[in-house]
Amino acid sequence: MGTLRETVHEMKLAAPALAAVSADDRNRALSAMAKALADNRERIFAANAEDMKAAESSGLKEALIKRLKFDDSKLMACTEGLKQLSELPDPIGHVTLERELDDGLVLKRVTTPIGVIGVIFEARPDALVQISGLCMKSGNCAILKGGKEAENTNGVLFEILRTAVSEVAAIPDNVMIRVSSHSEIDEILKLDGDVDLIIPRGSNAFVKHIMDNTAIPVMGHADGICHIYVDASADTEMAKSIAVDAKIQYPAACNAAETVLVNESIASSFLPELVSALHDANVKVRGDKKAAGYAGLDEVFEDPGEYRREYGELTLAVAVVSGVKEACEHINRYGSHHTDSIITADDKAAQYFFSMVDSAGVYRNCSTRFSDGFRYGFGAEVGISTGKLHARGPVGLEGLTSYKYILEGSGQCVKEYAEGTRSFNFRDRL
Amino acid sequence: MGTLRETVHEMKLAAPALAAVSADDRNRALSAMAKALADNRERIFAANAEDMKAAESSGLKEALIKRLKFDDSKLMACTEGLKQLSELPDPIGHVTLERELDDGLVLKRVTTPIGVIGVIFEARPDALVQISGLCMKSGNCAILKGGKEAENTNGVLFEILRTAVSEVAAIPDNVMIRVSSHSEIDEILKLDGDVDLIIPRGSNAFVKHIMDNTAIPVMGHADGICHIYVDASADTEMAKSIAVDAKIQYPAACNAAETVLVNESIASSFLPELVSALHDANVKVRGDKKAAGYAGLDEVFEDPGEYRREYGELTLAVAVVSGVKEACEHINRYGSHHTDSIITADDKAAQYFFSMVDSAGVYRNCSTRFSDGFRYGFGAEVGISTGKLHARGPVGLEGLTSYKYILEGSGQCVKEYAEGTRSFNFRDRL
User: Fold this and answer.
1) What is the overall mean pLDDT for chain B?
2) How far is the alpha carbon of B372 from chain A, nearest alpha carbon, in Å?
3) Chain A residues within an 8 Å CB radius of B251
4) B273 closest CA partner among B288, B297, B295, B293
């Protein structure tokens, strides 16, 4: 095996070979992965039972234990997900630009895998399967590090997947490895010549720690401070049900709403209704003095910086704004550029909101919880990016690709073009 | 004005307003910029004369003085470039995905500007004009920092451009600023909440220094170690002229060749010819012992790590490889993933090279010097990216855009989909 550094370096050298594997062979590997998981059901469940036992005796939180559990329904979701991936169009080898620069000098831009991707994920064993599948479909080598609570399950899942992949002769060796200790992550963060991208999933502090400690590009989202803005012309019943859904349907998710902004002109009637609907759903409601002037809140704060909080639980902030302009300003100032929704019947207000809110997702008349790779039809996601470079929003197969420029000539040198004896004659062919 | 931090923060808040400016108004600003430059010809030349005088008395290198000079031909190139930019299609507002997720729930992905971009460039005053133009066309706010040698010229150019832009009423204030000291760069590197992207142009050490000192994403290329591989079936006359062009046409450019690899089967006849052609062009030729066995070299080295050198001058390394496979391995190992060219009549060898060489540009039968935004028909470039994320290769308007997801619904909540009472029904409309 050699050291981790050597193993990753071999992976880097194998990456172009994986990039050259045909879509059929990559799809064959995905099918083999799905079949192997189903065939090894009992072995996976036994390993998961060990992790569950350890988690329960160490007093792990209920929500985490739920994520850790790998049962028949999760197994089914995993095999189904791999099958869906195998049926999606190939994300690599697409010609996205084809231009004749001059006679006999043709430029093409072709999508390629990124290369070697390190993904650090939380204690959900199904994440290991999803990420392995996304990387295989997109022709990327994967370094996988899962949460330590799922150590046994991940170990078994990884061995099953790796063995399945090795049955497809065209796939090079060494295209997926698993690491399990924190010291190994620290080592990987130093391999900026060999690792092309790190995708950390986890707490804000964890993502920031990764970013501060590596020269490798990092794709991740820090916060999920999402807003619902209820405009003057909103259907208030719709606004209430969307606000409740966006808060309670899965409060720990990054696309859950943290703040509802209400247009001043409807605040005196709507805000008390909203607070009452939230209370019925066991949501604690906070806000500044201005908001408290319209409805009874559970907590009133003075510092507007409180609007920058991500609750991740059944707590929500409310604020009253003068209109869509102030709503956009509030969102750009206190939000995290993730996903924000306007509830309105007014097309002009919606257009203004779409253009002025600087977020990965700008929605109208629906819940912020739709911001998710599966719900966007991407098959699955490796994460949600709040950065604006490379990939923004849910990151599926397309976000795992790069491209290269292929230029085919017939002996052309730059000299003649620089001296003006020949000139370019751009003709797009796509 | 306030402090730099405040100015940049205001710029960040103005960024969505610039993003919302129509293409017509942005093109109007570009035309105003071109006209203002032509109208202020004498003022620009006077400022440049001061910079030239200071440069000459301080003993600046000939090559740098040539770059610093801003004369009629450079002015013409600048105004022509701005005019071309104004005629290019709008890079923002493109719908690149349109998908009905379910009845009445429609997802669109629309291209947007990135936001606030800081560009640090060398002592070419025309770079200030090009970058300002690219940022205006793509709706991005620009923080510009040019080389100190061009201080007077840049100051005058910037004032002219800013005044011209301010004549277009629709463009918000504060969308371009110029900074001139190193301490201001250090301050900007700390503004990771307000600056979306830094593009440094300059030496490897400088780019690395920027990357090590900011949490803002950095897009830049480090090295330019480009290769020519002369395959067994190459037209040797073509190979010689391309190798000479790629080395001597502009040796300081990052897309100039540093190493020529020669197939063993033709090395005994071709390598002496090549060395002779390079000598005729005043190029010093180095290589390892194996290469020296085929032709008289000016210098022989033992350490293969010498193949990782970027000369930037009339020096070139040669090596002998067993075939296209070893050529690709050499390039991936010692190159910088910039641009590499195979000279061959063999389609299979070319396909292998295109797929296995992990570089932004993979060429066949032409010079590596074509790797350039203007030559690709991008109008201009802000730089060349050897990273694989976001933009790879020459970065023009498209590389200065991001996107957002717009989702329009009619009251949809996630609850029903999560509970299975409704399901997605993805239908692509593009």
Assistant:
1) 92
2) 11
3) none
4) B295
Q: Which residue matches tokens 């599966």?
A: A374
Q: Do A370 and B328 touch (CB under 8 A)?
A: no
What's the pLDDT at B57?
Answer: 92
Give the residue ranges of DSSP H helices in A284-368: 289-292, 324-334, 347-356
pLDDT for residue A324 is more than 80: yes
Question: So what's the architecture of B4-91+110-220+387-404 in CATH?
Answer: 3-Layer(aba) Sandwich (3.40)
Which of A407, A424, A430 is the best mutation test for B, with the most CBs of B within 10 A? A407
In the A/B pair of chains, how many CB contacts fall below 8 A?
A: 241
pLDDT at residue A7 above 90?
Answer: yes
pLDDT at A253: 85
Question: What percent of chain A shows pLDDT beyond 90?
Answer: 68
Sheet with strand A197-200: strands edge to edge: A176-178, A141-145, A116-120, A197-200
pLDDT tens, position by position, A86-120: 998 999 999 988 999 999 999 999 999 999 999 99
CATH no. of A4-90+112-220+387-404? 3.40.605.10
pTM of the model: 0.87
User: How far apart (Å, rounded) are the C-alpha atoms in residues B117 and B136?
Assistant: 11
CB contacts, 8 Å: B405 with chain A = 360-362, 371, 376, 392-394
User: If you average pLDDT over residues A409-413, what whole number do you get?
Assistant: 90
Residues of B in contact with A367 (CB under 8 A): 412-414
Number of H helices, E strands in chain A: 15, 17
Q: What are the backbone angles phi and psi of residue B41, rounded to the nearest 5°?
A: -45, -55
